[in-house]
Sequence to fold (85 residues):
Amino acid sequence: MRDSTLTEHLDFLLRLEGQDEATLLAKALRTGIETLYREALVEAYLRGETPREAVLNELGSDALDEIEFQRDALRRDFEWGLQGA
Fold:
């Protein structure tokens, strides 16, 4: 996939999925917007701009647990790194 173009990707998906181009592009747009929304929601939560409950309702407890685990691990690593400074 390193040198594949967007057109090549689209052609591959059209063959694989057996869907028409409009349907596949609509699916891609929906998937992309959902991904961007999730990323923005997580970012807003980590900045303190979105309540925890909103993330829990939208992404579920497993995703929220993972987000908080990663946040806490990063904080611990950062604090550990500052101790040697």
About this structure: The chain is about 80% helix and 0% strand.
